[in-house]
Write a structure and sequence with these properties.
The complex is a heterodimer of chains A (323) and B (521). Chain A is built from 12 helices and 2 strands. Chain A has 323 residues and is mostly helical. In chain A, α11 packs across α12. Chain A starts with a helix and ends in a 9-residue tail after the last helix. Chain B is α+β, with helices and mostly antiparallel strands and 521 residues long. The chains are: A mainly alpha (323), B alpha+beta (521).
Chain lengths: 323, 521
Amino acid sequence: MFSAITSRLAQALLVMLAVTAIAFVMFRYVGDPVAMMSREDATPAEKAELRHSLGLDRPVLVQFGSFVGRVAQGDLGMSFRNQRPVATLMAERLPATMELVIVATILSLAIGIPTGVLCALHPEGRTARLIQTLSLVGISVPTFVTGIALILLFAVILHWLPSFGRGDVVHLGFWTTGFLTRSGLESLILPGITLALYQLTLIMRLVRAEMIDVLDSDYIRFARARGLPARDIHFRLALRNALMPVVTITGLQIGSLIAFAIVTETVFQWPGMGLLFIQAIGFADVPVMAAYLLFVGFMFVAINMIVDITYTLIDPRLRTGRT
Amino acid sequence: MKYGIAAPIAALFLLAGVSAHAQTLRWSAPGDAVSFDPNAHTDSFTSNIEMMVYDTLVRRNRMLAIEPGLATSWEIVAPDRWRFHLRQGVKFQGGENFSADDVVTSILRTIDAGSRNKGNLATVKGAEKVDDYTVDVVLSGPYPLLLNDLTGIFMMSKAWLTAHDAMRPANISTGVTSYASTHANGTGPFRLESYMPDAKTVMTVNPDWWGKPEHNLERIEFRPIRSDATRVSALLSGEIDMIAAVPLQDIPRIAQTPGMKMVEDPSLRVIFLGFNWKPELHAMPGQKNPLLDLRVRQALWHAVDMQSIHKRIMRGKSRIAGTMVAPPVPGYVAALDKPLAYDPALAKKMLAEAGYPNGFTTGLACSNDRYIADEQLCLAIASMWTRVGVHVELKTETKATYFPRQDRGDTDTWMLGWATLPPMDGYSVLSAIFATRSGKFGGANANGMSVPALDELARKAAVELDEPKRLEMLHQAFKIAYDQALFIPLHEQPLAWAMKTSVDMPQFADEYIRPWFTKVH
């Protein structure tokens, strides 16, 4: 067991290194931070001095090495744009992104599972067909279009909900939360729906397919033959079994939600890490971009590792090194 | 931060006070202040935000002319020494008295080796206290634009900086992080209540401000919104009172919405095209560079249809330009402000005379997210040049990659915008764009242009303290640029703000938001 976990950890570390390396190669093409940091009429000497003081005149490999070295010591560096520590900037933005992702996950499960069941139970029904059609829209319309459409309807035309921002937040130690104020909760609705839409349709379609599969299996037929009530068959027997893959997918999708939040956060001016990242790109703020990619990479790796380890616990066949 | 409880309570007060005089201005712009430390950045929008909290020794009035600020008067005691007499009885928002020590500290902090904006005081060597309310600013030599430079240098409190261990500016290279990055203590018209980057910056009126308020604001809420569509929506939904940088396509819609108005004037920013001055073009290696021929440059100018750019692309909101500075900027000459006439036939003839009857190939490089409609502008110009037989290789890209490319001289013809800020003086064009790149000159002259007459004017104007003589030098420089068609000026791009009709906010050509001149009814 211990060796299985350490080998996973070693793999995870390799993946993270690879992510950072690829990021560093890409940074050469996103622009020159010195040009962004200089005054409009800065002299060439001023720029050269700045480039040197930032260490940007060193070879890429050396820059990469020193970055990895610093990260290993827990130092993410300082932002070129704000001249503040990247770790502080990330910590300020983390709560906004995480709360949005939590809301989106809850929304997608709370709506996706019941509608999926409904579609599986009455696959030919009118409601099911309507939901199926709508789900196609959910999967195919780009996030920013959904976001703008929601803003137009609920903020500009109906004046029901705020069009942007996080509302008032409450500070709980290092965390800021929008869950405790009215404007904070209202502000979560539109971006939450926007971010959830894709995952919602995914879960709905997954539940539907799994349910139809399970409903067709022998033990359900036997349960029917025994005359058990339909509700028990559908929800106690069928749904429970259909939910297994849903749990896995939801877990894995949390990583994607954090990454996809970039678009939603930009549309709704949601002060999370995605917005920080977008601004960092515009400024060629390499330390922030590197830290963000590292963070997203870490989330993916960590979630995958947890899923892997859980599997190993459940299924002895998956344990490595002991075939 | 005590924001958690303070905000709902403040909201209650606001609800209760709608009919009273407690006026709040809620405004939005695409970007946010990157820091509140004046010496930790070179971003003009950030300076704009800081200017609401911090005062300067001299400031710009409604006409953008320089007037006394924290200094009431000044004199030149020696060519390299200016003496400033300070306003007495001024208090910082934290309660500290404003005196000569604060001025010396603020100037030394600006020219500190770790200061990011030390270039804004490039000629200042130091500052010396004469008495409690008199300060000498020591220069490296005669310099006519010191007052212009000082309009952007904020006065911080020495006692406050010392108490919070923030004497050194925040700087990534030295690893200094500063209390002053997220807190502010100025003498300005508003005080900083809270700063949440990318979310909300709240300021309240400073009741002890030394100046006479020409506004009726009690509170300013700044909420940056990056996405254009969302920013416009927030205005239309009533959550925001005023937005800066309205996308051109949304202007008619906002103007037609009841209760909303557009304010649009040309800004100082001149958009122009420049040339490659090296022996060969990147687009035609191995052949002589056609752009070195005056007739070719004039032909390219004659080929640009300024009127249709003005009408179709800029929707009639730009101001067509013939010279490299806008009318309010010292050095401007009205006689030069006439573009060469649009005349494709003449352009073709001139190209033929220059030896290019079948045209030639040149690159045209532009940003696509820095200036108003920059990409459409270049598309239009490329097709206009194609019409006179010039083959154009167009390349548009994001500002983060475009400006480094332009700065490397990796372009044949290229677009740039110049607002002469922060000094707001024609000398900025002469020294950074016209003069040959070497030493402190030619920072934006990346493509090898070298005109000895302009270099000499730049060197002379830099130290000329006699204003009429100095202006005459600027006039000469702009005349050379015009006669030699060194650049093709296109227009001054418009500044588009939208606000509720209840907001009365004057627009300024330097693009600064000045809430201390703003009234909300």
